[in-house]
Amino acid sequence: MDFTAMLSGAEKSKVEMQVSASNKSLQQGEGLNQQLGKDDFLQLLITQLQHQDPTKPMDDKQFIAQMAQFSSLEQMTNLGQEFSKISGIVSRGNALNLLGKQVEILDGEQRIYGEVEAVSGTENPQVKVNGRYYDYSVVETVNIKEAAE
Question: pTM of the prediction?
Fold first, then answer.
């Protein structure tokens, strides 16, 4: 669908400025890691509906397909959030299993050896070794033998 035929001169220039700004930011490396989210998808759909030709309305099958895509995108976003929560719970459980065990932690270039004294945090757990907290993700090795009492 060609929107430019239905836009006024001011609207065309506004759209051209937005496209130009987006292209410029992409060329400069901004937004390379960004993905279109459900808000972006909904905004595109609303814009398409606002600028459609009233004498040639959007095909209902096309509209239903776009709404189904939006619904799928929303469900995938919700699943992603739930998987993040589950991952945090699993990480916390794994970190709790390290209590009282000897571990090796890689902190930058330095290797720290010691017993896990405590665990804190839920989604991003931390382990306390030698009186200092470290992210669970930096634990390199775990000694099967528990620390001597």
Answer: 0.47
